[in-house]
Amino acid sequence: MILLNGNLLPENEAHLAYSNRGLLYGDALFETLRYQDSKILFWEDHYFRLMSSMRIMRMEIPMNFTMEFLSLQIDSVIKSLAPSNAYSVKVFVYRDAEGKYTPECDDIGYFIQATPFDIAFYLIEESPYTVALFKDHYIMGGLLSTIKSNNKAINVLGSIYAKENGYDNCLLLNHQKEVTEALNANIFLVKDSTIKTPPLSSGCLNGIIRGQLIKMMSKLPNYTLEEASISPFELQKADELFITNTMIGIQSIRKYRKKEYTTVVARDLLGKLNAQIRLSFS
């Protein structure tokens, strides 16, 4: 089932117009949420990122787009599906207007869809996870790169490159040839007790789990966190690399070129992240 502008419809009846601005011009945003135990994980963070992104895109936020309203809309979609331990939820917001580059009005449309899956909490994947640098195209730094718009050509091309060459993921470079993020996640580099992640000014996504880990690590005396640029040359000197997003939590990278990495810090942080989630549910 799809919730399209407040109407719950079967997927084969939920249609967008051929003139949809998200399709024609990328004039759209989305949030991917993890829903479990009748709650949206980190809902406040997701909601405020969506509102901030809409402002960056100069979208006029409807008066009814409150946290409570959107949460109830998501709940109605979940209740229409078969029971599951958890769900992946996508909230897609687009400017619902005619016109070419310049929209003729400020109306907003949206749809919400959800997909069930079985894993209730975040786990470290034991299988080998190999990455490569994707160097065909670069991310430009700036606010537009930090939001979840549907302008994802680099991510699509990088995913095709990874599939064609047998990699699990690719790391993306910005216009200054700094490591910025993975195709679908933020990146963290561990060297001794120092953990680095690129700053938002590098062009990386303003990730929800990234933000949670930054807040968490500021309170952990065993680690020193740096929001600093990462050179490709640092990758092979690191003890550990891991990536983060809302759906996977933390994914350890096991191999880049001939370098193989440990998973000690990722496991420690993932345990703390799961404990934080359990505490929020209690």
Q: Which key phrases capture this entry?
A:
282 residues, alpha+beta, D-amino Acid Aminotransferase, Chain A, domain 1, D-amino Acid Aminotransferase, Chain A, domain 2, six-stranded antiparallel beta sheet, 8 helices, 29% helix, 30% strand
Mean pLDDT metric = 95
Overall geometry comes to globular
CATH architecture of the largest domain: Alpha-Beta Barrel
- Strand share of the residues? 25-35%
CA-based gyration radius: 19 Å
Q: Total helix count? A: 8
Measured between the Cα atoms of the first and last residue, the distance is 30 Å
Structural class: alpha+beta
In helices, the fraction of residues equals 25-40%
Please tell me the total number of domains: 2
> What is the N-to-C order of secondary-structure elements (H for helix, E for strand)?
EEHEEHHEEEHHEEEEHEHEEEEH
Number of strands: 16
> Uncertain runs with pLDDT below 50, 5 residues or more?
none
The CATH class name of the largest domain reads Alpha Beta
CATH homologous superfamily descriptor of the largest domain: D-amino Acid Aminotransferase, subunit A, domain 2
Work out the oligomeric state of the chains in this entry: single chain
Report on the structure:
- It is a single chain.
- The protein has 282 residues and is an alpha+beta fold.
- The chain folds into two domains: 2-117, D-amino Acid Aminotransferase, Chain A, domain 1, CATH 3.30.470.10; 130-281, D-amino Acid Aminotransferase, Chain A, domain 2 (Alpha-Beta Barrel).
- The chain is 29% helix and 30% strand.
- It contains eight helices and 16 strands.
- It has helices at 21-25, 43-56, 67-79, 143-146, 153-165, 208-217, 232-235, 264-281; strands at residues 2-4, 7-9, 28-36, 39-40, 86-95, 108-117, 130-139, 169-174, 179-182, 186-191, 194-197, 224-227, 240-245, 249-253, 255-256, 259-260.
- The two termini are 30 Å apart.
